[in-house]
Fold each of these.
Amino acid sequence: MYDWDELLSPYKQAVDELKIKLRSIREQYERTSKHTPIEFVTGRVKPVTSILDKAKRKNIPLEEIDEKMQDLAGVRIMCQFVGDIDTVVDLIRMRTDFEIVEERDYIKNKKNSGYRSYHMVLRYPVQTISGEIQLLVELQIRTLAMNFWATIEHSLQYKYRGEIPSNIEKRLQRAAEAAFRLDEEMSQIRGEVQEAQEIITR
Ligand code: GTP
Ligand code: MG
């Protein structure tokens, strides 16, 4: 029998630590008068049933999941505006408490499903009673609209067990475009409001 608790506990520690660190970025912005690029942060350790499903689907031997399954630890950062994502990516790149091993820009290159998000894979060190362990954490950075779409699409994928009928797939792709247009419109509105304010305060 596999000792999942033992394998996953450093991942839980990594997720807990990163949630605190990333929420602290938000708190630091809140102490200034600047707009915070981070709206909220969530995180989870992949449930064992999902680990087993994915290992089977992707033919990953259980001994290799710590290197080949990059999302055992997953942290998500939600932003108000698409432009905030770049700010967050820059903040992440500046940090010295972990290493970035991979970046995938699914905003410039959206997935066929319509999915958009910015992904970073981190090599994150956790300190344990038996020394330091470095492990992979998947960081997803997305707007509230991208998150709205991805959350619902994910639960539909789950309901249909990954076999969404093609007419629904098409509608989801269109819904993803609508979410993206909403993001663009919100950014534009914000830009215009900022401009108007600058004129008033001049
Ligand atoms: P998996 O998709 O996790 O098997 O690994 P991968 O190597 O293909 O990584 P990828 O960057 O494609 O996706 C990693 C994660 O992004 C997934 O576990 C999801 O959380 C999210 N994701 C990717 N594509 C989609 C999508 O079409 N819909 C939704 N809702 N989420 C997605
Ligand atoms: Mg994938």
Amino acid sequence: MSRAKRKMDHIEHALNSSSSQLSSMHDISFVHQALPDLDVDDVSLNTQIGELFISSPIFINAMTGGGGKATEKINRQLAQVANVFHIPMAVGSQMAAIKNEKEQQSYKVVRQYHPRGLVFANVGSEATVEQAEFCVDLLEADAIQIHLNVIQELVMPEGDRSFSGALKRIEQIASHVKVPVIAKEVGFGMSQESVKQLIDAGVQVIDVGGRGGTNFSWIENQRRNLPYDFFEDWGITTAASIAEAVSVSKHIPVLASGGIKNASDMTKSIALGAQSAGMAGQILKWLKDDGLDKTIQHLDRQLDEMRSMMTALGASSIEELQQVPLIIRGDTHHWLNERGII
Ligand code: FNR
């Protein structure tokens, strides 16, 4: 199967997936404060991902590129959304651009439509230093994501079977590229152990990519009409992953992603300790179902709702939101207790 066909298959199945899993964010509750002593206009959504300053704590996570005009159009629309809100946007894996010059435009369109905004390059952990540098240069990127997708590869019959040496290659990329390195999962989450290894290897930012949203095991099983659910319930949920990552050190910038769909998910992620939340599948669905203008309206509403929630909590900034008391219930409580995190 060609790479371009696989990319379009992934988009198709991601659009058709309706996650039956209850989001781990249902395990998180805020403690209502009847006297927040704050005005909506006093709330600032400014945040920071390491050395990068951003006006809203949301970003568009890696999805596509490398599938000709169809993926170029998706990347153009995503870049238009990012440009309206001045939020960062990541492109999908740039391996196609490395291998085929003709595919470069489907990525470069992001810089064209988000000219002064933050753009994240994206490679897998198989990339060499030269390939990573090439991907950064192609987009004049402000950071580079290195995706970790062992389970996705294992589920694909044509996927990789060799995962040794990944940390060493990540370390080499981190010590050579001129921009911050973000290590990201793609929906199976991050443990304390992995976060420690990545930080020791020189990675500056962790995107937890937790379980609860786009599920690549489900997507791959659907593509082959497998009658059983190989690896579908694997992984660490987004809520648990954020707590795992934050528990390693309060100073590591942590990004929340995996099933982020609305203001409540974003606000809870940040209260758990993340600096910003990333959306992939949800924004793709909005674009497909409702078009570009409505997608912009949806995102605008989520940011407004987030401001309202922060007002209700008496949190005027992202730092204050990270300090509000939380009640953690259910599976997430059990997980964090077993892991000695709470
Ligand atoms: C992805 N994701 C992804 N991640 C990555 O690092 N490189 C990639 O090329 C892709 N490709 C891709 C295609 C499609 C169609 C989707 C929906 C997702 C993973 C994505 O960035 C994110 O980590 C997961 O999708 C979890 O977030 P959501 O979708 O639950 O918000």
